[in-house]
Amino acid sequence: MSEHNPLRLTNEEKWNIKPVLYKRAGGHCEYPLGCKEKNIWKLTIDHFTPLCIAMILGWPREVINSLDNLMLLCEEHHMEKDRITPEEKEKVIFEVRHDVKPLAIDDISDMDKLAKVREELARIQWSAQFDGQGNKL
Fold first, then answer.
1. The dihedral of CA 14, 17, 19, 24: what is its sign?
2. Which domain range does residue 47 map to?
């Protein structure tokens, strides 16, 4: 059984918020290019701004899990978003940490910096599993 990250929604919170999101979404997956999935049990709650980015930005739990930062996606589109997201996460983290414009894909001179951003992302995701004293949450 995986440990719960205190910044994430609890199962009870998901249970309470999913019908609200479903109504807001018009009763279907909120994938931007359209999706016909309407079965609420096949829709998952996802964050517009990923948790690791929100942590870097210093967002409190209430903002991370606000209706404005949540959407419903079918499993297929949730997985598709998650495949695209890591690269976007790296760009945002790089911008936040270095206060610069995003890297061009062919910009080899900053590949070392990008590698450090990837390490930072992994560290942040790992540290989110522990409290301030190094105890697993």
1. negative
2. 11-127
